[in-house]
């Protein structure tokens, strides 16, 4: 599976994409993003300025809900395999949380920034997850000798950042 994340609707950019599923529209502080999940890479050349392409490494649930969290994590070329292995062996406790809709672990096709996309019924469900014991368990190795974030040399060339969006239904 592949995810396209764009500031413009793919259908508006490419008439040949009319047969593809509708994109999910998301908003944050006047910024609009469209997310489309499809089975294969689009056979057209998409401008990369405001469109990012990802391969889905791991997924559960669906693209939808009312609230999306995109954890953007830059990873060095040398660190990709260790980073991916860590996420392929994740605790998988988020799927049991109230209000959970979906998760996608996304490998970048055009740059170095992975995205962990989680989808929720509402922002309150995400906040409750962050305050839960399941969240603490999933992140228990962070900043420990076992944690990937303290290994040297660092596989993270820049700090990660989180963006949140309200999903239009």
Mean pLDDT across the residues is: 82
How many angstroms does the end-to-end distance come to?
Answer: 22 Å
The chain-level structural class is alpha+beta
Please give the radius of gyration in angstroms. Answer: 16 Å
Core attributes:
169 residues; alpha+beta; eight-stranded antiparallel beta barrel; 8 strands
What do you see in this structure?
The chain is α+β, with helices and mostly antiparallel strands. 16% of the residues lie in helices and 37% in strands. The chain is built from 4 helices and 8 strands. It has helices at 10-13, 80-88, 123-130, 133-138, and strands at 2-6, 24-28, 31-38, 51-61, 67-74, 100-108, 113-120, 161-168. The chain has an 8-stranded antiparallel barrel. The radius of gyration is 16 Å and the shape is globular.
Write the layout of secondary structure elements.
Layout: E1 2-6, H1 10-13, E2 24-28, E3 31-38, E4 51-61, E5 67-74, H2 80-88, E6 100-108, E7 113-120, H3 123-130, H4 133-138, E8 161-168
Antiparallel strand pairs: 1-3, 1-4, 2-3, 2-8, 4-6, 5-7, 5-8, 6-7
